[in-house]
Amino acid sequence: MEECPRCSSPLERLSLADVTTVTCSHCGYADVPVEHEREFPELESWGDAFNRFYDALEAADDE
């Protein structure tokens, strides 16, 4: 049986559908990949916002 990399306790294997991971019930370690950096959406400039508004207004007038 594998040992926990944090506390050396035995690891438990968990499976759900076709995904399997290991966890430690003693210290809470879970072998789950995590992304620690947030990705911020690209901000829209005021000019782009006004252009989008006017384009939508013109499209509505054409209907």
Description:
It comes from Halostagnicola kamekurae. This is FPG and IleRS Zinc finger-containing protein. The chain is an alpha+beta fold. It has a domain at about 1-30. About 25% of the residues lie in helices and about 15% in strands. The chain has one helix and two strands. A two-stranded antiparallel ribbon has the order 1-2. The longest helix is centred in the C-terminal third of the chain and has 17 residues, at about 45-60. The model has no long low-confidence stretch (mean pLDDT about 90).
Give a quick set of tags describing it.
63 residues, 1 helix, single chain, alpha+beta
Q: What is the general shape? A: elongated
Cα-atom radius of gyration:
25 Å
Give a quick account of the main beta sheet: strands, pairing sense, barrel closure.
Answer: 2 strands, antiparallel
Structural class by helix and strand composition: alpha+beta
Give the ordered list of helices and strands: EEH
Which range best describes the helical content: under 10%, 10-25%, 25-40%, 40-55%, 55-70% or over 70%?
A: 25-40%
- Please report the distance between the alpha carbons of the first and last residues: 69 Å
DSSP helical segment count: 1
**Chain oligomer state:** single chain
Strand content: 15-25%
> What's the β-strand tally?
2
Task: Enumerate the spans where pLDDT stays under 50 for 5 or more consecutive residues.
Answer: none
- The spatial strand order of the largest sheet comes to 1-2
Give the averaged pLDDT, no decimals: 90
